[in-house]
Amino acid sequence: MLATLVICLIVFIAVVAVSARLMENSLIYFPSKHPSGRWNAGDYGLAVEDVWLTAEDGVRLHGWYAAAETAPGSAENSGATPVILFFHGNGGNLTDRMEKLKLLTGLGADVFIIDYRGYGKSEGRPDEAGIYRDGAAAYQHLMDERGVAPEHIILFGESLGGAVACELAARHPVGGVILESTFTRASDMARKVLPLLPPQLYLKTRFDNLGKLARIHAPVLILHGAEDTTVPPYYARRLYAAANEPKAVLFIPGAGHNDVSVVGRKEYAAAITQFLDNLP
């Protein structure tokens, strides 16, 4: 009887592991394709420019470029407006970040947001290597097509977007990195979702944000909801501990995973403003 139970358990684990591996990307990415979304930015008081670019592997990507609404903070002395290169989370598309774009442009920064492959109007299907290529294409666009110096590019990663920001900042010079509701590693999230199944049995995706932070030598700001149950605050504390100086962290009381900028709007905006003002 015991032997039969052991065999059944092994078979069950194997089935779950194989299923999780086969469905890995569909369990990580939840894109909304065009025409789903709020595509008339003017309805929200935003003036955006459609941007088309091509990733290294030939995938065509779509993004929006929104100019700053107010005079820049730290850029007043340097003669250049900071550009926030925004990488959104794993759900929806760039149109779901309308309010956040409005907030950020109101703080005196231009904002360039892209849809990863498979999201919005972008072609292809998302995976870890692919969205890293998408981030690199957006970074290159800012330098080659808009003449933005690396020190004026501020990477902003929202949740899963933090993985793209960390990958990019670990490989290329940037002016700063902002991480909102970001996790430590994909394996840590996998253990949270499937605590009885070792991630190495089924998980190919790494998203090693914790390891990459040690290689990032730009200023880092971490924003996190104090009541986040999707990515608990403990993850933010680990990221903060791993980051190099200068660094700052802000936990928003009462905020969960997706409402950090809404629940703590005043503190949230003040932290980003201070971060931009203190950049070298």
How does this structure look, described?
This protein has 280 residues and is an alpha/beta fold. The chain has one domain: Alpha/Beta hydrolase fold, catalytic domain (Rossmann fold, 3-Layer(aba) Sandwich). The chain contains 11 helices and 10 strands. It has an 8-stranded mixed β-sheet, with helices on both faces. It has a two-stranded parallel ribbon with strand order 1-5. Strand 9, helix 9 and strand 10 form a beta-alpha-beta unit. About 5% of the residues have low confidence.
What structural category arises from helix and sheet content?
alpha/beta
CATH class: Alpha Beta
Termini Cα gap: 68 Å
Number of helices: 11
Helix content: 25-40%
Largest sheet: 8 strands, mixed
The portion of residues forming beta strands comes to 15-25%
Spans of at least 5 consecutive residues with low confidence: 9-15, 72-79
Order of strands, main sheet, comes to 2-3-6-4-7-8-9-10
What is the domain total for the residues?
1
CATH superfamily: Alpha/Beta hydrolase fold, catalytic domain
Provide the residue-averaged pLDDT: 90
* CATH architecture verdict: 3-Layer(aba) Sandwich
Task: Write the element-wise H/E pattern from the N-terminal end onward.
Answer: HHEEEHEEHEHEHEHHEHEHH
Q: What is the radius of gyration?
A: 19 Å
Write down the overall geometry.
Answer: globular
How many E strands? Answer: 10
The name CATH uses for the topology is Rossmann fold
